[in-house]
Amino acid sequence: MPRAKRSRAAYMISAVAQQFDIHPQTLRLYEREGLLKPSRTEGNTRLYTDDDLERLEIILALTRDMGVNLAGVDIVLNMREKMLEMQRQTQEFVEFVRREWLQRSAVNEERIKNALVKVGAPRITPAKKA
């Protein structure tokens, strides 16, 4: 399912801390632990994007609601990223197979139309077990 287009807005650490009712030091800790990776301005101010906020929501749900520690959060987030990548690759493969099937179907239809002796569409018959 395609994501809605996100804005390019960026939020400073104080606004994010206030919005999520957490201390700015908690956000800094999540960054040190590699759970969040906010961008930085030339003046080295942290800027959090909508994607960062979505990730923060997951982190907070895991820690607050499920009692997962930060090492567990890291594992869950990495697994989530791998699953999303696998879904993307699977969808890409399905699209490739669909295109190939359509292309080969069209080629076979053309061959059948131009055959000297008209035959039905080829059928695959399963082999009998010995």
In a few lines, what is going on in this structure?
With 130 residues, the chain is mostly helical.
Structure, explained:
This protein is mostly helical and 130 residues long. The protein has one domain: Multidrug-efflux Transporter Regulator, Chain: A, Domain 2, CATH 1.10.1660.10. The chain has helices spanning 13-20, 24-32, 50-65, 70-113; strands at 10-12, 39-40, 46-49. It has a three-stranded antiparallel β-sheet. β2 (39-40) and β3 (46-49) form a beta hairpin. It is elongated and about 80 Å long. Mean pLDDT is 88; it is low at 1-5.
- Biggest sheet: strand arrangement: 1-3-2
Helix and strand run: EHHEEHH
Strand-residue proportion? 5-15%
Helix content: 55-70%
Total domains, how many? 1
Largest sheet: 3 strands, antiparallel
Structural class by sheet pairing and helices: mainly alpha
- On the 0 to 100 scale, the average pLDDT is 88
Q: Per CATH, what is the topology? A: Multidrug-efflux Transporter Regulator, Chain: A, Domain 2
* Contiguous runs where pLDDT drops below 50 for at least 5 residues: 1-5
Gyration radius, rounded: 26 Å
Q: Counting H and I runs of at least 4 residues, what is the number of helices?
A: 4
Instruction: Identify the CATH architecture.
Output: Orthogonal Bundle
Oligomer: single chain
Strand segment tally: 3
